[in-house]
Amino acid sequence: MMPEINHKIYIKVAIEEVYKTISTAQGWNAWFTDKTTLEINRDGTGEIRLRWTNFGSEQENIDDGGKILEATPNKRFVFQWSPGEQNSTVTFNLEPYKDGTLVVLNETGYTNSDKDVKACIGCAVGWGEALTLLKIYLEHGIVYKQDL
Q1: Which of these, 74, 35, 39, 73, lies nearest to 52 by C-alpha position?
Q2: Phi, psi at residue 52, to the nearest 5°?
Q3: Cα 146 to Cα 72: distance, rounded to the nearest angstrom
Q4: What's the rounded Cα separation, in Å, for the pair 94 and 92?
Q5: Among 9, 41, 73, 137, which lies 20 to 30 A Cα-Cα from 15?
Q6: Do residues 60 and 54 touch, judged by C-beta distance below 8 A?
């Protein structure tokens, strides 16, 4: 198995605001994706489809997603998607910290296949960028999408 992807970022806004942004389609589409859909059931499970149009330097259209495994308000948001050969699991843990929220992101499930190694490296970089975009969106209201 590949190593895990791990990132942490401090965002100087209330934990409730961070959770709302990462647990709703409207939230994702505001700072990162284009036409994401997301549905959470009463039991905290559900479905997520992350969508990007003309994304990045390759101008790719990306549609990926899967099951929401856990949605615990203001604590955790866990979902699966398949950027590699098989499902990987992305976990957002939210912790109160100073005047805001510590966001701890972890992704697991990649194998040593060529496709998974490439996906893991891409996602390790991508999640770092994504968390930076989340921070500037929540703290300053700035939206930077790569519509070049």
Answers
A1: 35
A2: -130, 140
A3: 31
A4: 6
A5: 41
A6: yes
With vertex at residue 142, the alpha carbon angle to CA 138 and CA 145, rounded to the nearest 5 degrees, is: 110
Contact 128, 13 (CB under 8 A): no
Cα 38 from chain centre: 12
Q: Where are the alpha helices (DSSP H) in 4-113?
A: 15-22, 25-31
Q: Are strands 60-72 and 100-108 parallel, antiparallel or unpaired?
A: unpaired
In words, the CATH class of domain 5-140 is: alpha beta
Residues ≥6 apart with Cβ < 8 Å to 139: 11, 12, 13
Q: Break the chain into its structural domains and give their ranges.
A: 5-140
Among residues 7, 11, 2, which one has the least CA distance to residue 124? 7
Q: Write down how long the chain is.
A: 148
Q: Which helix (H) or strand (E) holds 129?
A: helix 114-140
Percent of the chain with pLDDT over 70: 97
Q: Is 124 helix (H, G, I), strand (E, B) or coil?
A: helix
pLDDT for 148 beyond 50: no
